[in-house]
Amino acid sequence: MFDKILIANRGEIACRVIKTARKMGIKTVAIYSDADKQALHVQMADEAIHIGPPPANQSYIVIDKVMDAIKQSGAQAVHPGYGFLSENAKFAEALEEAGVAFVGPPKGAIEAMGDKITSKKIAQDAQVSTVPGYMGLIEDADEAVKISNEIGYPVMIKASAGGGGKGMRIAWNDQEAREGFQSSKNEAANSFGDDRIFIEKFVTQPRHIEIQVLCDAHGNGIYLNERECSIQRRNQKVVEEAPSPFLDEATRKAMGEQSVALAKAVGYASAGTVEFIVDGDKNFYFLEMNTRLQVEHPVTELITGVDLVEQMIRVANGEPLTITQDDVGINGWAIENRVYAEDPYRNFLPSIGRLTRYRPPAEIAAGPMQDNGKWADDAIEGKAFAVRNDTGVYEGGEISMYYDPMIAKLCTWAPTRDEAIEAMRTALDGFELEGIGHNLPFVAAVMDHPKFISGDMTTAFIEEEYPEGFEGVSLPDEALRKIAAAAAAMYRVAEIRRTRVSGRMDNHERRVGTKWVVTLQDQEFPVKVKADKKGSTIKFADGEKLRVSSDWTPGDQLATLKVGGETLVLKVGKISGGFCIRSRGAELDVHVRSPRQAELAKLMPEKVAPDTSKMLLCPMPGLIVKVDVEVGDTVQEGQALCTVEAMKMENILRAEKTTVVTKINAAAGDSLAVDDVIMEFE
């Protein structure tokens, strides 16, 4: 076995690989850019080597710099993680020439499957069903428009060397095909150093389901079931689960066997993923093969008990698989939510900054693995659920504009899908994250969405269910009552503390009342609080009573309470006369007032937001790539105004109405903050 492995990556995947290497007794080497000097993966590794400036194309994807780090460290093997150089055949070739093991597939398999155009042709030759499309290279936007018309709209414009949603656009007409071609080409060049583009038919109402394969260099290959990855935004996955709620055993077997056959056809050896589009009749079409570890691999590990990173390392060491297809089962259900540094209230645009508070829920193991990488028979006995959090950040750390906006991958496991969802709801409620915009409210809302709960979703879920964007969650009356009862009980505790503050003026004793009016989500709940040593009984105006008990103390930002006999987890912040509470994706200002205060509060004028309708504001911290208009231009609704790049993604900002440009405050190359004024209109 190897003595030392270098991880040619950063963030959560580097930390993930380090954990398994440490378990196997293998020393690890991290590499880092200037922006990652204090990163978690650098702190976790046994040693770390600096490789250059923050931009990935000057550090993490520069093969010569990574090879220098390998030489300095004396590492015998390299795990590439995902992204960066993980599917770069030239990197695999450089390692082979240097006598360093690549913890991934052979160079030939990367070349054959890593290139989407080549892989489509191989899949067709192997009698694998593929989506109609144009497999040749496309030279310019005019040719892209011509091909799109021949295939028929809608079409998907893709970077041949792409992955992770980078370099992908859906076009519904000629204008979008022209714009999408150029943006995809630019993103592909910046992210992968390869700007080749191809076009295929976009299948409407599709589900995105992928098969995990594992092969060795001795001709053995197995599939470890499927993952459902249909909930996506901007072609990037947000929620994954295993198994899929849609597949039956026959379809699973057919997809799995085709995937293994395809892998064997190119001499594949390592972990890899074959992705499919599946329609409503369970017809499946090959999309691509990712010749690397997938972001969402934890859900497969949770239902099979197989440590995929360990198996990759063992295969790279020349060992045969000890797991056969008959050994692979489906044990329970697992769900993963990707926690991103992005603002769901601003159309999921990236957010950067410092994590002033980062307290993920405690991890709970489902049970031990055996030496062969499978769950022991009694591993989950007595364990109702498991919680896993793969992360690469820490409290006080910074989310950089140079890399992917992922903060963590929160996973839950339980015997059934419903139980796994409920475990995820509780885990999300207990996830403390402050300092940046994040998508916790959105993924919490998804966990409660009827369409997700039913399992009847497609890749268009977000567009269909949130057509005007995510505007927050409105909780039902039952949930509001529980929060109102909890807030009344907590406010009483806070009031008691305030009465004990020393230095009060004479004859100004503060009394704690029993009657309060709790206001939240535009509703009022008059309540009466009756307290004792074990908790409080909250009586509502209609006579309903809820018993509240907890050990919450003022200042705690997380409250775990029993309300009406059920557990309620709340994130709690302080506002004047109440709390800012987050629960199940809802963010609520909860005011607790005396009856007289509540009466007077209704007379207070509401603060009016400033009018920004005649301005184009920068929706995220980013770099202006280009400005498409000039002062004096008349712009039409939907017309492109400028392009902003952030976290390797290009975002085209468009006019919301027909108007005239009166002032432009930014130019290509300018770095802007959120809400900076880019241009003004008549």
TrEMBL record:
Residues 1-467 form the Biotin carboxylation domain. It holds the Pfam family PCC_BT. Residues 120-317 form the ATP-grasp domain. Residues 606-682 form the Lipoyl-binding domain. Pathway: Metabolic intermediate metabolism; propanoyl-CoA degradation; succinyl-CoA from propanoyl-CoA: step 1/3. It catalyses: propanoyl-CoA + hydrogencarbonate + ATP = (S)-methylmalonyl-CoA + ADP + phosphate + H(+). Its EC number is 6.4.1.3. Keywords: ATP-binding, Biotin, Ligase, Lipid degradation, Lipid metabolism, Magnesium, Manganese, Metal-binding, Nucleotide-binding. Transmembrane segments: none annotated. Signal peptide: none annotated. GO terms for molecular function: ATP binding; metal ion binding; propionyl-CoA carboxylase activity. One of its GO terms (biological process) is lipid catabolic process. The keyword Ligase applies. Its cofactor is biotin. It comes from the Bacteria. NCBIfam families: PRK08591.1 (NF006367). This is propionyl-CoA carboxylase. The lineage of its organism: Bacteria, Pseudomonadati, Pseudomonadota, Alphaproteobacteria, Rhodobacterales.
